[in-house]
Specification:
single chain, about 15% strand, alpha+beta, extended, about 35% helix, about 80 residues, two-stranded antiparallel ribbon
Length: about 80
């Protein structure tokens, strides 16, 4: 997969590059990718947050919860 950043700001490019590298390392270590997530994509939300594009991230199989599953937000 080739990653091309549509946003020209350095912090965004660095963050996306680091995220892609981490995803590749996790896959190389045997984890199974699940897909991608996109957030804050509504134009009004992007404008309010000062974003030029939606926020993008990856999901891995080990993060998948069964239907009706719960997760604690307490922290560690």
């Amino acid at each position: 997969m080739t990653f091309r950043c549509a946003i020209s700001t350095i912090p965004y490019q660095e963050g996306m590059t680091a995220q892609i590298e981490k995803r590749r390392a996790r896959i190389a270590a045997g984890e199974e990718p699940l897909g991608w997530k996109v957030g804050f994509g509504a134009p009004a939300t992007m404008q309010r947050l000062g974003l030029q594009a939606p926020v993008v991230g990856y999901l891995m199989q080990r993060a998948l919860l069964p239907s009706g599953g719960t997760v604690s937000l307490k922290g560690g």
